[in-house]
Amino acid sequence: MPPLKIKKGSSKHSAYDLRDPNAEVLEAHTLAVVVDNEAGVLARVIGLFSGRGYNIESLTVAEIDHEGRRSRITIVTTGTPQVIEQIKAQLGRLVPVYSVADLTVEGPSVQRELALFKVAGQGDKRVEALRLADIFRASVVDSTLESFVFELTGTPEKIGAFADLMRPLGLIEVARTGIAALARGAQSETA
């Protein structure tokens, strides 16, 4: 195999950049989908993803209109721009779907996640876990002589950073809700 030739001053041919320059970049998008609140609707939406090999990073579902029997599904998915457009179009064609909003491209949005962390430890590690929880504004929702359960709400990045810091202090279990998101401003994206 001949040696790799690198032209000086050229960033196009770096030996360290092995990405295909023609490959499309994967993007994460947060979709808000309003659907009928009835049996089987979630299965149909999820079936659309699994049947076509689309990945779901996060999924939350809750009723938003009891009288109108509607629920909101917030889905974080990853794909190329073309795949994201296909997902939105296919979701929009499902019968029980009232609206599909891509919160990632339709303007600023607020995204939050709730997580519970069980941390077991004694002595200095226990004190350090409490100190870090205070810095992150995590609440202690359960305490024993051997462990704490912390509750933390924030961005997925904040949740991940807290988990990374708790691992060496005795993190033994994590439960995350998935992302809940709303568009900023007075208008509704999913009316």
UniProtKB/TrEMBL annotation:
It catalyses: 2 pyruvate + H(+) = (2S)-2-acetolactate + CO2. Keywords: Amino-acid biosynthesis, Branched-chain amino acid biosynthesis, Transferase. One of its GO terms (molecular function) is acetolactate synthase activity. Its EC number is 2.2.1.6. Pathway: Amino-acid biosynthesis; L-isoleucine biosynthesis; L-isoleucine from 2-oxobutanoate: step 1/4; Amino-acid biosynthesis; L-valine biosynthesis; L-valine from pyruvate: step 1/4. It is an enzyme of class 2 (transferase). PROSITE patterns: ACT. Residues 30-105 form the ACT domain. Catalyzes the conversion of 2 pyruvate molecules into acetolactate in the first common step of the biosynthetic pathway of the branched-amino acids such as leucine, isoleucine, and valine. Belongs to the acetolactate synthase small subunit family. Dimer of large and small chains. NCBIfam families: acolac_sm (TIGR00119), PRK11895.1 (NF008864). This is Acetolactate synthase small subunit. It comes from Tropicimonas omnivorans. The gene is ilvN.
